[in-house]
Amino acid sequence: MKRIMDIKDMPNFNPAVPNGLDNVSKGEVYFGICRTRQYNGFRELSIPTIVCDEHGAMLCVALTKSEDGNMAEKIWRCPTCNKGAFEVIDEKDITLEELKKFKTLVIPYLIYLSKERIEVIKQYIKEGGRIITSYMSASRDEDSNILEEPVFGLIDIISENVSKTSFVKPIFDVDNFHLRIKENCLVKPKNNEEVLGRITKPALECTEDKWMSHDVPPGEETDYPAILTGEDGKGKYLYFNHRIFAEYLARDMRSYRDVITQSMKRIYQPEVWIEAPRMVEANYHVRGNKIVIILTSCIVGRPAAMVWKAQYNNIDEIIPLFDIKIKTTKKISEANDIDGNKLAIEREDGLTTVTLPKLEQYQVVTIKK
Q1: Contact, 360 vs 320, CB < 8 A?
Q2: Residues in CB range of 87: below 8 A, 6 or more apart
Q3: What order do you get walking across the sheet with 321-328 strand by strand?
Q4: CA 222, CA 168: separation in Å to the nearest integer?
Q5: Packing angle between helix 254-264 and helix 244-251, nearest 10 degrees?
Q6: Residue 49 near residue 86, CB atoms below 8 Å
C-alpha cells in the first residue's frame, strides 16, 4: 500500500472529475491505494484505515481503478481540516523530522532495517515518541546481518522459543485465561519495564521433532515476559514477544483484541472512544465546539458471502443494541441524538460518559464541549 499522498500526485489526476468537493482541485485531499485479493472465488477489496488524528474519520469521495484492474485508489479527506493524518511510511521517509509528525509508531513485525534508520527511531523515542512493536523486529540490517541490539535496543532477546505452541497469561481480565501463540522468543527486561503478561509452556512438548495432531493445553507457567511496556528517555514503548497482530487476525477472538487494547492504554489514551459490541462502526468529526459521532449497526443487511473462509448469513430483521457508551476525556455540556433528544451525561475520574440507550440501524450523536 502506498503512503497517503496529495491528490495532485495521483496517477491520471483530473481535477475536473465531479466528486462534490470544492477542495479537490486545490490538492487538499489525500488518498490511499489498496489491492484486491481473491478468496474462494469472491473478490475482496482491502481498504486501508485512514483517519485524521485530530478530527476523526475521513470521507471517501471517489474511486478509480488502474488499467490492469488489480489496484484501486480511494480519495479521502478530513471534513474538518481537509488533510490526511494517517500515513504508511516508506523507509526512505524515516527521518527524525518526519517521525516527529506522529504521536505513535506501530511496527508490528519488521525484521530488516538499516542501522541508520534504527538510530533515527531510537532518537524519536528518546525525544518523546511512542512505539508499539513485536517479536524480532529490527533484528537484522538491510544485508541480513544479525544486529547486536535487536528491537531498537529496548529488549534483550535470549533466543527463539523452540516450542511451536506457547501461551500468554496476561495480567488483564479477559475471556481466555491463556492466549495461544505460535512464533515467539524468550526475552528478559532490560530496564524497569512493567510486565503485562508472561509465557506459559504447553502441557506437552510441541517442537519440530515432537508434533501433536491436536490442540495442546497450557502447562507450566514461566517467568519469561510476553508483554512489556517501559520508558526510554522522554518516550514510551510497548513490546510483544510474539506476533500479536497476526495471532488476532488468524483467530479473530475478542480476548486477543482486548489484550491489545488494554496493553496500548499503557502508552496511549484516545480522547474519544466507543464502548459497544464489535459490529458497531463508529466515525466522528469535529465542528467547532461540537463532536459529531456516527454509529452504524453492521448486524443489519450484511451480504451473505464467503469472506475469509467464513459463511455469513444475511439478517433482514433489525436487531437493536442497548446502552452504547461514548467516552471522552473532554468535559461535555450537552449531548443529543439524531432527533434532538438529550442523552445522559456522567463525569467521573476525569472521564465523561454519554449513554445512547438504543441503537437500531444507525444513530448520529452530537456532543458539545
Answers
A1: yes
A2: 3, 4, 102
A3: 272-275, 321-328, 351-359, 344-348
A4: 10
A5: 150
A6: yes
Q: What are the helix (H) ranges across the chain?
A: 96-99, 115-126, 244-251, 254-264
Mean pLDDT, the chain cut into blocks of 10 residues (369 residues total): 44 45 35 35 36 47 42 46 47 81 85 91 95 93 90 92 90 87 90 92 76 76 95 95 91 88 89 86 82 81 47 66 92 93 93 94 90
3-class state of residue 163 by DSSP: coil
**How many other CB atoms sit within 10 Å of the CB of residue 40?**
10
Count of Cβ atoms closer than 10 Å to residue 253 Cβ? 16
Q: Residues 6 or more apart from 252 whose CB is under 8 A from it?
A: none
Residue 133 CB neighbour total at 10 angstroms: 22
Query: How much is the pTM?
Result: 0.67
SS3 content of the chain, % helix, strand, coil (to 5): 15, 40, 45
Cα 258 from Cα 263, distance rounded (Å):
8
Q: Give the Cα separation of 257 and 253 in Å (integer).
A: 7
**324 burial type by CB count under 10 A (0-12 exposed, 13-18 middle, 19+ buried):** buried
Residue 119's CB is within 10 A of a number of other CB atoms, namely 13
The CA distances from residue 237 to 45, 124, 178, 233, 254, in Å, are 33, 11, 23, 11, 23
Location of C-alpha cell 502508552: 267
How far apart (Å, rounded) are the C-alpha atoms in residues 345 and 353? 6
Strand 130-134 and strand 235-240: the pairing is parallel
C-beta separation of 367 from 332 below 8 A: yes
C-alpha cell of residue 1: 500500500
The helix/strand count (H/E) of the chain reads as 4, 26
The answer to whether 4 touches 77, Cβ cutoff 8 Å, is no
CA 36 – CA 155 distance, rounded (Å): 37
CA angle, residues 148, 152, 157, in degrees to nearest 5? 55
DSSP string, 172-191: S--S-SSEEESSBEEEE-SS
